[in-house]
Predict the structure.
Amino acid sequence: MGLKGELGFIGGGKMGEALLKGLLKAKVVRAEQVCVFDASAGCLEHLKETYGINVCRSNQELVTRSDVIILAVKPQVMAAVLDEIRPGMTAKHLVISIAAGIPLRYLEGRLPEKIRIIRVMPNTPALIGEGATALARGRYASIKDLQLAEQVFSAVGRTVIVEEKYLDAVTGLSGSGPAYVFAIMEAFIDAGVRMGLSREVARVLTLQTVLGSVKLAMETGEHLGCLKEMVTSPGGTTIAGLHVMARAGFNGILMDTVEAATRRSQELREEVLKS
Ligand SMILES: NC(=O)c1ccc[n+]([C@@H]2O[C@H](COP(=O)([O-])OP(=O)(O)OC[C@H]3O[C@@H](n4cnc5c(N)ncnc54)[C@H](OP(=O)(O)O)[C@@H]3O)[C@@H](O)[C@H]2O)c1
């Protein structure tokens, strides 16, 4: 089902463009329904030429034209953007913010009273339509608003709905997660090279092993422990490797990793609220 009304993007950078592309591809919106304003004229020209969407001359113009507004600017410029759009905001608007670490309380405090806001945390695989996005509802947003936002982000991957208090953990797990997965894959490739494989062969084997394992888990829906057992014969090679991981405290390392990122997200949020 298509989205009704006009959709405006404030910021058409990496995430803004990824979303736009996904929405057009999934036919959630038509190009004529979309307008974008970005501080970079080059970016606007590129988006207009590539996708045939409308471009605005300012954030104020965008607010007048749009029903749903996606805030896709960096957190550092959010205060200035909110100041610019505040005067034009009315009860018709739904605001969706993807800015990492900017709390609903902060957004609600800087926009007129009772504006409906949804805060979301996507991740970089959204750039190829395989994102993992968590959505949290502001105090004035309805379930219908949440469903609309979910429809938008389903165009670039999987979505989950959480209470805002869990968004720091989401940031620590799926927001930062791609970096951890890439680091693990790099380590696997080095490990293959250490055992005498060429880097190219090690890369193909590593990436396909991760992709295949993810697909196997998703398509079978099997418990991960059962899938692990399928590869682990008594006294065999895999259990020898798993023994090393267990002895090194691999699970604990990953738990500490996600905890550190979650704590850092909490700290950054506190700094935003103090500013
Ligand atoms: N990339 C990720 O993995 C990821 C994941 C989760 C959440 N996010 C969030 O997504 C948001 C956007 O990130 P991004 O990676 O897409 O950043 P980006 O590529 O830098 O895009 C932001 C765009 O906003 C433009 N801009 C700056 N000031 C503006 C203003 N006042 N009005 C309108 N546009 C303005 C920038 O133009 P200039 O370049 O000329 O300044 C840039 O084109 C951030 O808040 C980030 O926290 C990103």
Remarks:
- The chain has two domains: 7-162, 177-265.
- The chain has a mean pLDDT of 95.
- Residues 10-16, 37-40, 43, 59, 72-75, 77, 80-81, 98-100, 121-124, 175 surround NAP (CB under 6 Å).
